[in-house]
Amino acid sequence: MPTLTFLGHAACEVANGDATILIDPFLTGNPAAVTKPEDHSPTAILISHGHNDHVGDAVDIARRANATIVANFEIAMYLQQKGATVHPLHIGGGRAFPWGHVKLTPAWHGSTYEEGDQMHALGMPCGLLLRAGDRLLYHAGDTGLFGDMALIGREKIHLALIPIGDNFTMGPGDALEAVKLLKPETVVPIHYNTFDLIRQDPAAFARRVAAETSSRCVVLQPGEGLEY
Ligand code: NI
Ligand code: MN
Fold first, then answer.
1. Which residue ranges form the domains of the chain, and what is each CATH number?
2. pTM exceeds 0.90, yes or no
């Protein structure tokens, strides 16, 4: 069974056999991070959207570890120009890699990358479906609640990573509705308490998930993980 380690904010790492897949590797400058870029040598890196708190250290890690970055076309092409090996996908499209199958889903958000005084529009924001070892993980990315989560939930989701921070993404109330649409076996809240703007009580969210859904909610501290 794959293991998920939460790395703080929206960053996490999936270990499955010999393969390691990093998702949204924002470590440098992440107040919640407990690891450094050099602690990670992944097989692949998945990026949900172009915001800096998700692209993070992807290029440096990809170049050093010779990892493939999988993201939407615009992010992939932009990071390829920076010397990373990439594989572009787009919303609704999936691809089987030796280490797992990745499909991009819609997400309602933005995807602009800031570099100094430049802003780069890096396509549409996405969610990520990663099938590894026959287990399906859904990383919602940054998104508001949308009804088509019910379509995503028609496939059995073993682990869903759902933002609860509010302000930029769903807050706990909408995240609870998302859990009802997605019907995951296990849900882990992400994208909260990294900054003051997104302060939330994850234990209160977990209690509501337990009371109102049949999903299991696990609150992970950065550095903690679970098998799914
Ligand atoms: Ni974002
Ligand atoms: Mn974000």
1. 3-221 (3.60.15.10)
2. yes
